[in-house]
Design a protein that fits this description.
By secondary structure, this protein is mainly alpha-helical. Helices cover 72% and strands 0% of the residues.
């Protein structure tokens, strides 16, 4: 019984992994807090530069 269970467990996990690779998630990529602050600084810098042109 244990041998059968272990084989089935391995096969199920392999099937899960291949299925996960075929269907990528739609979840957005994680952006760190420092990266968000950097992007905000760039946006504010760009916004301040636009009106003076």
């Amino acid at each position: 019984m244990n041998r059968k269970k272990k084989i089935n467990q391995i096969l199920k996990s392999k099937a899960k992994k291949t299925n996960a690779k075929l269907n990528p998630s739609n979840k957005p990529r994680y952006i760190s807090k420092a990266e968000r602050a950097k992007l905000d600084a760039e946006l504010t810098e760009n916004n301040q530069a636009e009106p003076s042109q």
